[in-house]
Write a structure and sequence with these properties.
Helix content: over 70%
Order of helices and strands: HHHHHHEEHHHHHHEEHHEE
Strand order of the largest sheet: 1-2
Structural class: mainly alpha
Shape: globular
CATH topology: Formate dehydrogenase/DMSO reductase fold
């Protein structure tokens, strides 16, 4: 009998990496989503300067989560990648294009408006694809054992379109509250104005998905309504945080809106994990069914436990160095 459940340890590591990616890359994707509606080029400069020092480092967590999933749960890849090839390709293409647009915009003069749209397009496509992938996980897909037997576009359904648009709205809300925290003047005031509208959109999508999810997944329906007193603490907490966010914006607080928005994402993320636990591959394969050999898990765990504190340390140091407000013409001050 094993004294340590390595699969459970890997679940915690990968789960932590995924939520870190969602929160940290989410706000800079949100900044890109908001680019076309920013009131001026000066505002766009401030927004981009606010994420310039950190955006590429934020994607470290995507690598950690993805590589960890491949190492610890290889059978998940054998099912999910064939089912989600197009969605994953769109996500990666969007991230790559977003990065290219980010760098070229700083150098461009006459063509800057094109790179503004490229930055928006890459950020939006990547965000939508991520939301659609999550929706596909919720609704499930056709498998026989650990083999995907559906078509290449089975992941794209009305439900996954809603989850994709929901994540676009959620990332935009993160981007707006980040902008409140990191900018000043016209840019900050504009972010204050749009945040309640984005919050309303997120709540609307949240309610639609909450109603729709039990209809597409009977297991989730049974879990939600069979353990009402436990699970509904999470959506209740999300709504409470939404109210805190709204009041913080009305009072023109700067840090609390961003913190409350991160709390909303954490509640939604935990709600998803608890709703599907312990199944990872449709229809009834658990994390332990999909896990790699314990020897492989232990070998890889040693490396991850060495690397993760280093990643946390340089991430914290970066955010500390680049704390404070930004200006469109001079970066941080």
């Amino acid at each position: 009998m094993e004294l340590i459940d390595l699969t459970l340890i890997w679940l915690v590591i990968i789960g932590f990496g995924v939520i870190m990616y969602i929160l940290m890359d989410g706000f800079d994707l949100g900044v890109g989503i908001l680019f076309p509606v920013a009131p001026s080029e000066e505002c766009r400069n401030s927004m981009m300067n606010s994420v310039a020092p950190v955006w590429d480092g934020n994607e470290t967590w995507l690598i950690l989560g993805g590589a960890g999933l491949l190492a610890a749960f290889p059978l998940v890849y054998s099912v999910f990648l064939p089912a989600l090839y197009i969605g994953v390709f769109l996500m990666l293409a969007g991230l790559i294009f977003r990065g290219i647009a980010f760098e070229f915009r700083f150098k461009a003069n006459r063509s800057r408006y094109l790179w503004n749209w490229a930055f928006f397009g890459g950020s939006t496509v990547a965000s939508f694809a991520q939301g659609a992938v999550v929706g596909t996980y919720i609704q499930g897909f056709e498998t026989e054992g650990f083999v995907y037997v559906g078509g290449p576009l089975d992941w794209l359904t009305p439900f996954t379109v809603i989850t994709g648009l929901g994540l676009v709205a959620g990332y935009a809300l993160l981007g707006a509250t980040w902008t409140i925290m990191k900018t000043e003047g016209q840019t900050q005031e504009w972010a204050y104005r749009i945040t309640p509208w984005l919050l309303g959109a997120v709540i609307a999508v949240f309610l639609i998905i909450s109603i729709w999810t039990p209809l597409v997944d009977p297991f989730v329906a049974e879990r939600w309504f069979g353990q009402f007193h436990v699970l509904w603490v999470l959506p209740g907490g999300a709504l409470l945080l939404a109210w805190i966010l709204y009041r913080a914006v009305q009072k023109r607080e700067e840090i609390l809106p961003f913190v409350a928005t991160m709390g909303i994402f954490i509640c939604a993320y935990l709600g998803l994990l608890v709703s599907k636990w312990p199944y990872i591959v449709p229809p009834d394969h658990t994390y332990w069914d999909a896990a790699s050999d314990p020897g492989s898990q232990l070998f890889l765990l040693i490396g991850v436990l060495f690397i993760t504190p280093i990643v946390l340390a340089y991430t914290a140091w970066t955010y500390w160095v680049f704390r404070g407000k930004v200006r469109s013409d001079a970066g941080y001050h």
